[in-house]
Structures are given as structure tokens and as C-alpha cells.
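FORM 7B: Structural annotation worksheet

SECTION A. Query
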Amino acid sequence: MKVVSARKLTKKYDKLVAVDGIDFDIEEGEIFGFLGPNGAGKSTTIRMVQGVSPITSGSLEVLGMDVRKQSKEIKGLIGVAPQESNLDPDFPVIRNLTTYARYFGIPPAEAEKRSRKLLEFMQLSDKADAKIEELSGGMKRRLIVARALINEPKLLILDEPTTGLDPQARHLIWERIRELKKGGTTIILSTHYMDEAEQLCDRLVIMENGRFLVEGQPRDLIRDVVGPCVMEVIDPDGKEIEDYLSTKGDQVERSADRIYVYSKQCEIVQSDFRKRFPEVYSRVRPATLEDVFLKLTGRRLKE
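SECTION B. Predicted structure
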């Protein structure tokens, strides 16, 4: 079953084309990722899926419903964990959940039951009566995810769910996301952490300028776009090294302090390189999704 289906989906703001005629499907029970630099169109696309931003043209169905005609019904069946912390500071932890449950018409007794269960799920049971200001950043993020689950959504949207968290808090949220997937929840994940997307997503897209650059499974994108490995040359001095490597790899990129060589035969390239430049340090490592992202979108900062 297709939980989300978009065809020629477009969003314009006056002359700005934020989303430019994209097609995609999200299957039931999968984790689907949206990646891209700032301004790529990720958030705009997700807001259209939520039904909070009207589409300009094309078609978009969520849970079998047309977002143009049934946005209210769609909102009642999805959960959204926004990037910003918008918890109510006037309410303790448990009331943030029970009060939010009212928006979905959940009876008070059932809201209390679900809230307690979700706090346990997110390891926040001992903070039920705590004030929001007493929570750490990681606790707030976990509470926001718990709140998004209060209506037992068929589609869960997570926007940068682990931004700013320490490794332990990140991995706890990762574990809970995997548990939700095992339970059949379909998840849309927007993240800037490439390792997070590589670990969690069944499929993903990389966007830029409102269009998809690539779509597929992380391991397939790494293999097809970059290859098995990357050679890094650290602190290269002079253009001679770059000129030499440009004849050896499939693609060569330079940053401030190193050169990246994409090749299917990194070890051979490195062996030849060390014979010619024995004093220059280099290393070969497995390719990652971050290499895919940077190869497609470039290493220059985009605001």
C-alpha cells in the first residue's frame, strides 16, 4: 500500500519554485528519508504532505486521500515531531501529552493511559510531573516524539529528530524509531545527519533546488554514485598533486585541507600515489552516504 503518492508535485511562492514537479511514493511500513542542503525543498515537501501548505500544482495523496480535499482527515491520522521545541512550558510533562490528545478527540482516561505508555516507551516515566524547563535537550526531543505518537498515527513525520543531542540520546531515539517501524508505522525522516539516514532509512531522496538528484536505498546510492571507497589526501601542497590525481580517479574534489579521490580501485590509486609522493599522507576508507551527498551537492556552504 502506498501511504504517500505524489505526481508532478509543485510548490511556488510568487516567482520562486520551491518544489519543482517531483514524483515519489512512500510504501507502508518503510522509513523514507529527505536529504538536501538548506533551501532544497525538503521542508516544503513535508509541509505539503502534512496538509499545512497547499500545493500549487500536481497531485498528492496521503493515506489514500487527496490533500486538497481531505487535509483535515489526513491531519488526524498523522503524527509530526517538528525540529523546533514547541512544548508548553506552563504544563508538566504528562499534561503536555494529555492536553495535546484533546486535539484528536481522545477521551481523558484513554489519553492518560496512552501518555503513561508513551513516557515509558521514551524512557521518561520518572519525569511525568517535571516542568519542561527541568528537562535536558534530549528529554525534550524524546517528549516531542512521544507527543507525535499520542494519536497512534499511521504516518509519523520526524523533522531533524536528533539535532543537538549527545550520542546516547541519539541512539535511544534511533532504537525507538526502529521499534516503531517493526510495529508497522510508516515514517518520513528529514535529517542533516548522513549516518542517521544511512542507519535508518529504507529509501531516501537527495534534493536540491526543488528537484530530486537521486532516489534509492542508501547502500545502492553509495555503490552507484561513489563506489566502494574514497581516497583522501591530507594537506596536499601545490597543484601538482591535484593534477596527478585527476588522471587517476573517476572524480577528484578539493577542499581547504584535502583532496578526495572517488575510484573503484582506491588501493591501486593510493599505491601509485605513494610511490610518486611518498612524503604526502593519504588514506583509503569505505564510501559513505555523506560522500554521496557531497559529491552531488558540492562541498561549498549553501545558505
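SECTION C. Observations
The radius of gyration is 22 Å. The chain has a mean pLDDT of 93.

SECTION D. Sign-off
Analyst initials: ____
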